Sequence to fold (70 residues):
Amino acid sequence: MPLSGETRSTLIATAAIFIVAMGGWFVMPALMRWLGGFSPFLAFAVAVVYVGAFFGIFWLRARYQRSRGR
Fold:
């Protein structure tokens, strides 16, 4: 079944977000240990920013789609 342009765009965006998110979750434990050696608060801040960015991407995409009337 051929995909429409809108469906293809959605699949590509979803795949890109998924790959970046999984890559980040893969390196997160080592990054937290390394940053925790300097400051536990710095490690916590980086984790909060990463999780916030994960949800922020979906929020921005939803706003973009609403502005285009989808």
Summary: Residues 19-67 form one domain. Helices lie at 5-38, 40-67.
